[in-house]
């Protein structure tokens, strides 16, 4: 039986609120209220995963660490935690929430030795977020270039990185459809599972991503489309299980 696409509804937290950004740009927020209530709603709707992001920590404008920890600890489902996890202390705090795995973004670009060390220590609890414009990686809240996607992917593969979360920044928060070419290209460049992020706007987009499961796509993060009620999470889960 072919594997089904995992869906990860997103809760991105900025200034204590669940928000969605457009192209990840600071200041483009639309607010959707209390992050815990949003997360609990996705759990009630049948989510098996929650993608939980501390945007302030990613941007370097503070953090929502206590609130994020409360959300993570309140979930019965698996949590993927990201934003501002860049050193031993922030990694320890993230893992102490009981999350299933963390995503490292900026650290993979700026402190590769540390990332190699924590991959060796924590195995598949560590994923790397490859946030790209074209094929150039972006870090520090997607404000700084951080090298070539495929060179970085080869390095991380050689270090045993278990999984990649691939975001096309040009698509993120736009409801313009995922970058399927990018996903196919990344899958062709690595044997490791890929989680797709950015641009999902419809159930057909999810079906298109699901068609890439045989190529190595394991999951899809869904944000704006759920908050904008383009479809419900129940409908999305059904669409990818058909
Ligand atoms: O998810 C977003 O919209 C986003 C926008 C701008 C920056 C980061 C964003 N999210 C995720 O944050 C982590 C990276 O954080 P860091 O670089 O490790 O501090 C990564 O998972 C991004 O996808």
Compose a concise summary of this entry.
By secondary structure, this protein is α/β, with parallel strands linked by helices.
Gap between N and C termini: 12 Å
Compounds present? the ligand O=C(O)c1ccccc1N[C@@H]1O[C@H](COP(=O)(O)O)[C@@H](O)[C@H]1O
- The percentage of residues in β strands lies in 25-35%
Give, in order, the helices and strands.
EEEHEHHEHEHHEEEHEHEHEHH
Spatial order of the strands forming the largest sheet: 1-4-5-6-7-10-11-12
Give the uncertain stretches in residue-range form: none
Would you mind describing this structure in some detail?
The chain is built from eleven helices and twelve strands. The longest helix has 11 residues, at 112-122. The chain has an eight-stranded parallel β-barrel with strand order 1-4-5-6-7-10-11-12, surrounded by eight helices. The radius of gyration is 16 Å and the shape is globular. It has 242 residues and is α/β, with parallel strands linked by helices. Ligand LGQLAAA5 is lined by residues 12, 21, 24, 53, 55, 57-58, 82-86, 103-107, 129, 131, 139, 141-142, 165, 167, 172.
List its salient traits.
single chain, 242 residues, alpha/beta, 8-stranded parallel beta barrel, 12 strands, binds the ligand O=C(O)c1ccccc1N[C@@H]1O[C@H](COP(=O)(O)O)[C@@H](O)[C@H]1O
